[in-house]
Design goal:
TIM Barrel; binds zinc ion; 11 strands
C-alpha cells in the first residue's frame, strides 16, 4: 500500500476519478470525434524515483491498475508502414499508448517519432540497437542506453541529450543486470517490464495473435500489455483488439512521467 500511495494520479479531482472508474466518458473520450470510441480512461503519472521498475513478468511490482485497466505499450519501432497503421487504429479509438523506440530506428525515421509524440503518445527508450544487455561488456551496455536515448531525443527535439525528456526505459528481451537496474534507478529512469504480452514475435496468423492476447488479458484481468508495432500481424489486429477492449469493459490508462503531464499539455 505504501508503494501505491507513492504513485501520483494525475486525475486528482474526485469527479474525474469517479468518472474514470465508472466508465463514464472521460474528458479525452468526450473530445473524441467518434462517439462510440474506446477513449483513454485516465492518465497515470509514474514517478520513476519512487517506483523504479514495474511489470510482473520481470519484477515483483507493477503499476497500480484497477480491474479491467490496461496500459498499451509498443516496442521496437518506429517502422513507418506498420507503426502508421497502429497509430491510425489508436487514433480511431482515441486511445493513447507508450512506444519504446529503438534509437537506430528513431534516427532513421524522425518524422514518425515526431508523429507519435504529436498524436499524444508517450515515448520511452529501448536502447540504440537492441542487444542482449547482460551479454555485452558493461561500458557497451551503458553506451547502448545513452546512445538510444540521445537518438530518440534528437528525433523528437533536435537535441542529442542523454537526459530523457520521458524517463521511461525498457530492456530488450527484458534482459538486464543488477548494475544496469541500479544505474537507471540512480538516474531517475523508470524501467518498464510488462504484465502480459501478445507473443507477436512468434510466427502466427493475426487471428491467432488476437485470440492469444485476448485470452491472456481475460485471464489476467488488467495489466501492462506488450506489443511490437513493427510486426504486421500486430498492426493488423489492432482495430479488432481495441474493439475487444471496448466491448468487454476494459479501460485504457495512459502513462506519463511524473510532473510532465501539464508540461506536455501546455506544449500541445
Ligand atoms: Zn524490443
Amino acid at each position: 500500500m505504501t508503494k501505491m500511495l507513492r504513485w501520483r494520479w494525475t486525475s486528482i479531482s474526485a469527479g474525474a476519478l469517479l468518472a474514470a472508474l465508472t466508465n463514464i466518458a472521460s474528458t479525452e473520450a468526450a473530445d473524441c470525434p467518434r462517439k462510440d470510441a474506446l477513449g483513454t480512461s485516465r492518465v497515470l503519472s509514474v514517478d520513476a524515483k519512487a517506483t523504479p521498475r514495474v511489470g510482473l513478468k520481470s519484477f515483483p511490482q507493477t503499476l497500480p491498475l484497477a480491474d479491467h485497466e490496461v496500459v498499451l505499450t509498443f516496442d521496437d519501432g518506429p517502422n513507418p508502414p506498420t507503426t502508421s497503421k497502429v497509430l491510425a487504429a489508436l487514433a480511431q479509438e482515441c486511445v493513447r499508448a507508450t512506444f519504446f523506440l529503438i534509437g537506430q530506428h528513431a534516427s532513421e525515421h524522425p518524422d514518425m517519432v515526431k508523429r507519435i509524440a504529436r498524436e499524444g503518445h508517450t515515448i520511452g527508450h529501448h536502447t540504440w540497437s537492441h542487444p542482449f544487455m547482460a551479454r555485452i561488456p558493461s561500458d557497451k551496455a551503458i553506451a547502448e542506453i545513452e546512445r538510444g536515448i540521445a537518438a530518440d531525443e534528437m528525433a523528437l527535439h533536435g537535441v542529442a541529450t542523454t537526459t530523457p525528456s520521458t524517463p521511461f526505459f525498457r530492456f530488450p528481451y527484458f534482459e538486464s543486470t543488477p548494475a544496469q537496474l541500479d544505474l537507471l534507478q540512480s538516474r531517475g529512469i523508470a524501467v518498464f517490464g510488462a504484465d502480459l504480452w501478445a507473443s507477436d514475435w512468434n510466427e502466427m496468423t493475426p487471428e491467432q495473435e488476437l485470440k492469444l492476447v485476448t485470452e491472456r488479458l481475460a485471464a489476467a484481468g488488467k495489466g501492462i500489455i506488450l506489443f511490437h508495432d513493427p510486426k504486421a500481424r500486430t498492426a493488423a489486429i489492432m482495430p479488432a483488439f481495441l474493439r475487444y477492449l471496448r466491448d468487454n469493459g476494459f479501460r485504457v490508462v495512459h502513462v506519463v512521467p511524473a510532473g510532465a503531464s501539464q508540461k506536455n499539455a501546455d506544449a500541445r
